[in-house]
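ok so I'm stuck.
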Amino acid sequence: MKILIVDDHEVMISGITALLDDYETRGCANLDQALPMILEWEPDIIICDLDFGEVGKGGFDLAEKAWEADCLSKFIMYTGADINKAILLGDIKGLIGKNIFAIESKVRPTAELQETVQKVADGKRPFDGYTVRVAKSNLPDEDLLLIERFFSLTERQLELVGAYAVQPDRKSVAKELHIADSTVKNYTSRILEVFDVENMRTVVAQYQKFQEILRTVGYQA
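replied:
not stuck anymore, here's the structure
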């Protein structure tokens, strides 16, 4: 059984390596080097931190790239952030049910990580639809609704919201995105409908909170 540990802190790699001394393990502290290493070594299990200190550089991003590269490795994620939010984000991204088999909390006893690794090694999937439902039930309704609303938007609609966060008006947004003012108007109308509000400034305020939720788990919209 080959296990790759991906974390930007060497002390975490050393600690987990010592914890899993019954397995063949390797460590990788550089996220950019992780995917080439995965494709070359082909580990059975990848234990990966969700947050690498930079938005867009995290465990979800690595898992998604591995899936797209037809990698068969099974991911076990761990995070110091709200695990229920992490589970929900992984589910919305479509990775739970694909190559993410579990998400563990850093604050839990190490014995739980050992147990999870053993389950995955035995071919079991600790996370399933029931786990996701439990995670949703433990989130504040406001956060749950916020996450689901933003993930219901298209990539272009999210770009529009991001542009509104830094531009003063619709025409400036159209100029930044190199699209017609009428197109911005149509996108805006749809976004306001999704959020059931009357102006984009309200959506932008919610977007900032949404971004903060993403940053806690190293994920980028």
